[in-house]
């Protein structure tokens, strides 16, 4: 009878209209608190800061990055935040922060690419093709100084030696469809090209190659033995050049570059709003973003940088005016260079990792309609269950419902729009974990800090000269700020008193995840379906127990959860333990505490550097595309599941449940490879 009642509850709840579900937000924070936050957050103020940031080519360790770091710090001091600092960590080409080899700082002063025309007086400048002053993205990152007058030679993709054979490469400039760093070894080191001209296209989306005027951000090898330079041009310009070269026309170019790498520092800006509770103020809820990017880099990621700045202003002002009580826990705000800056911070200053209880990370949160962006509220990895993701989803659904009502002409208390912005419904997607930004550093098994990831994807302008302030919607900035601020304020105050409402939220969210599990089971074998069922039980228990990170869970709730789990087991027909005991592949590994962080770094490949390119290519795990994930995600979670207790076979079961079935031998091969380079150590 109880089983039938439970099934009826599931069906009724899952089919409830989102507006009804969204009222749960009022159980997390009082309606008046939400009104105060909504009324103070300003999308226009955030956009005004964004306009300043996008004037700078914000490369890690560069003078322009330092300039915007100072700008952020000055605003924080004006707003009244405390302990405002620009922390500096060596970026010298040799220091390691976990698996990240610190890339040297890079600056550019001048770069121009000219097409020449032959006259009676010789070759003369005819048409300027690229200019650092006009468009910094036209010079590839990590270019070095150089000056050359040379012919242009088309090498196509330039990824194979056959692309270069029987062509006059030495001393000339090569035209390639690939990223400069991908062809650098062959073009420059092997065949002696003087430099590279690339028309690499933007990241693949439905709009890929659609706009032939885009110039994409290019990258060279940060640790190349043979320095070179590369220019980035549009697809339109490249097509013209290719057609002329195919007709046998000689194209002669003049290139001049003043740029280079040097020992420098990663700047990481940080500030706090101290908590009010004498005990809990030592714990922190952090807002994270990444401040670095090419100019203009409006959505990626000036948008996230200015949104957390606006959240900082909002909290500081409301607390100072007495309109909002100071939170129990401390609120921290962090602006690093992407990935490498966060790795530097958490490795060089371990006290940060010890204090931070949860992170709200914003990377691309302002895309307007022209960007075609879809806003996501993204959970942490399956290896790190946490109730904080459910909290963010509650506020996300609340904003979805309120803004849909507003856009549809219905009365609503929370339209959440900026006068200078749009009025469309938010329509945020509640998404499972995806990689690609600093959140994956916090949630790595070395640190295990749960992180909420707010992000746009796709964005047809990402990493191009068209990622401009004109495409950023102040309304979107306000709404992202509201979801982040509401989530953080609840988490900064949460205690055992909030346990009942969190248990209520958990049941809501768990039942929706159960529906997804039942759907996925239909495409699996019976054995794999049972693995997925076991994983769902394991995960929901982890979500419930994650409250322990913030407070002691009341025994009454523990009893209620035990009853709830019994119901889940009946529905899923799973009576065992997960992961189960397996006799094959019994090896157990633990992580090397000296290498903290995931192996996904920027501008440096720890795995390839230590193992060698050929050995990495033999690891099938890294190239596998599963039902719900691909190689990099499998690899990330395999390492996260290493805990000194689970066997290789058990880890194989877990990643198979998360991303789809995979041979345990591939997991074994990968972990053996990690052991050979010291990332993991064998326990038995």
Describe this structure in words.
The structure is a single chain. By secondary structure, the chain is an alpha/beta fold. The protein has four domains: about 15-100 and about 265-495, Zn peptidases (Aminopeptidase, 3-Layer(aba) Sandwich), CATH 3.40.630.10; about 110-260, Glucose Oxidase, domain 1, CATH 3.50.30.30; about 495-570, no CATH class; about 590-680, no CATH class. Helix content is about 40%, strand content about 15%. It has 22 helices and 19 strands. The strands form four sheets. An eight-stranded mixed β-sheet has the order 1-11-13-12-14-17-15-16. Helix 16 (about 525-545) runs antiparallel to helix 17 and helix 20 packs across helix 21 (about 650-660). The longest helix has 23 residues, at about 300-320. The two termini are about 45 Å apart.
Strand order of the largest sheet: 1-11-13-12-14-17-15-16
CATH fold category name of the largest domain: Aminopeptidase
Count the E strands: 19
CATH architecture tag of the largest domain: 3-Layer(aba) Sandwich
Helix count from the secondary structure assignment: 22
From the N-terminal CA to the C-terminal CA, the straight-line distance is 47 Å
Q: Could you name the ranges where pLDDT drops below 50 across 5 or more consecutive residues?
A: 1-5, 14-19
**Helical content class:** 25-40%
CATH superfamily of the largest domain: Zn peptidases
